[in-house]
Amino acid sequence: MGPRFTFTTALWNTESMNAWVFVSMPADQSEDIRELTDGLRVGFGSQRVRVAINDSRWATSIFPESATGRFVLPVKKAIRQAEGIDVGDTATVTVELVL
After folding, report:
1. What is the CATH number for 38?
2. Domain range for residue 47?
3. In this predicted structure, what is the pLDDT of residue 78?
């Protein structure tokens, strides 16, 4: 198992990417991930992770957001429906790095 990070945050999207819903990782955790994965990240600076929100678990990638320096995590529709969450709702998320 890789390092784990747990945080609570609101789900968001942007007009230009309406089909995509994200959560942003806290700045301090994003910096820790950046240090732990230096030289390991792949396309677009992405990092493979395992994620848990309530009872849902899945594998995906997190991506660095240039405007804030934080990593963002896409939350697919099937997960949002299974957990009864959507844009503006708050969720507790656990991210485990796949190193």
Report:
1. 2.40.30.100
2. 4-97
3. 94
